[in-house]
Amino acid sequence: MTALTEIGEHPETQPSGAAVSIVAATKVFGHGPGAVVALDRVSLDVAPGEFVCLLGASGCGKSTLLNLVAGLDRPTAGSVSVRARRTGLMFQEAALFPWLTVRGNVELALKLAGAGRDERRRRTDALLAMVHLTDFAKKRPHELSGGMRQRVALARALAQDAEVLLMDEPFGALDAMTRDRLHDELETLWRDTHKTVIFVTHNVREAVRLGDRVVLLASRPGRVAEIFPVSIPRPRRIDSAEVATLAATITDRLRAEVPSGR
Amino acid sequence: MAVDVVTLDALAPARAATRPSFGTRLWGAAWPKLLAVAIFIGVWQLVVWSGWKSQAVIPSPFTVLDDMVHNIGALWGDAIVTLRRALIGFAVSIVVGGIIGIAVARVRVLRLAIGSMITGLQTMPSVAWYPLAIVLFQLTEGAILFVVVLGASPSIANGIIDGVDHVPPVLLRAGRVLGARGFASLRHIVIPAALPSVISGLKQGWAFAWRSLMAGELITLLPGHLGLGQALNQSSQLADYVGVYEAMIVIFIIGALVDAVFFGSVVRAVRKRYGLIDAAAT
Fold this sequence. Notes:
The structure holds two protein chains of two kinds.
Chain A: E1 5-7, E2 20-29, E3 36-46, E4 51-55, H1 62-70, E5 77-82, E6 87-90, H2 102-112, H3 117-130, H4 146-159, E7 164-168, H5 176-193, E8 196-201, H6 204-210, E9 213-218, E10 223-229, H7 241-257
Parallel strand pairs in A: 4-8, 4-9, 6-7, 7-8
Antiparallel strand pairs in A: 1-5, 2-3, 2-5, 9-10
Chain B: H1 22-50, H2 61-70, H3 72-106, H4 108-123, H5 130-137, H6 141-165, H7 169-177, H8 183-219, H9 228-237, H10 241-273
Helix pairs in contact in B: 2-10, 3-4, 3-6, 3-8, 4-6, 5-6, 6-8, 7-8, 8-9, 8-10, 9-10
């Protein structure tokens, strides 16, 4: 694979150093009068090793933007360039393969990435240890709790050894306690592996808890409303006063963007 | 008092309690069935006692069972002939249904052309094929095979088509993200995801094969090769009503055994593995 993947019709010059560079990306679904503009000239640079949270109400095109970065879709106009061999993607549903065990799910990711048998075994052990699921390696997905399934999905996404990890509301369906714990684990993993993370959420506190920057997206059409740098020292706590204060500021801005009744 | 330390993992499903012994489980599964058989025999005997029909037409169940024990060798021979035909027919159906199913599932034009016809074929009573089969193959094993394959392969093909159509899109997407494209996607995602549906198709295919075979054996009397259906027909013609009941009982037992015991356990094992049924409930 090339070091630089160019997607889109008008690739702009890549700003030196950015891991992900989105330049005036526009995405239109459909044609004619029924066409829906999902993204309207969205521009964003993400530095290597940065943790960026995309925040917005439903309909702001968060998932569309993530699909563009993942290479699952192409922008109608503008460009999306990713300086990475691969991107890993995690969804709201764990989307584990039910016929495989926990270990099998992680190993399949390694197999599809071309790893040999010994390497698969060794790296699966390491990844399962990393997400604290060593004892559950032989279980099947339906035997796990929601939080454990997402940890398997995280291990599977990490197995791709992607420099850029894209997360589409991965903890959205979990209870607050489990989510809180996974925030800690994700922060530790991110710190240890130096990955670039783009994390989509509609939870303001979660965005402030995790992100180096919070990118607020406006809805219909999706566009960047404002970018908030988060300077609160890590490790953070979701219930700390600093997180709450910044979250309140962002929520006010979000309310201004999303008129009531929507 | 000891205080349990509750961690988040305690929210995970509890481990299954220790399984009861094999004997206990077997008895638990068997006694309702045995009771049902006992009630059936009881009702049958009551009908005989009521004198509704002469005992020549509806003999006592004990007369039939007693005669069956003496006749077991002949019945066994008939059953072997029939089972051989069923297995050959089913094997050919798997090949034919498998090829058609995979082709229709993968090729859009084929699906538009014959996709709905396959379901239509399934509704065709197999007996209706026999006149044509006899014209084409005369009174040979070929005629029976022809109808068995026509009866069973649409179900098998449909199972494959349904399975491939209903692979959850999120799994396809997850596979694509992990780099599974083309053949790798087929091998690692589509085929395993379609498996439960394919097995249901096979189960249904077997039921159709067995029915078609019985219809075929009743109609085509092949000299020298007596199957259960032919034995049934012959007993009826010779007014050997005890023989009629015996053949019917054997036909039922074989059909039920294969369907419930073999396919039932395979379907259950797969569904359990895939988390489609609650493991604790079985």
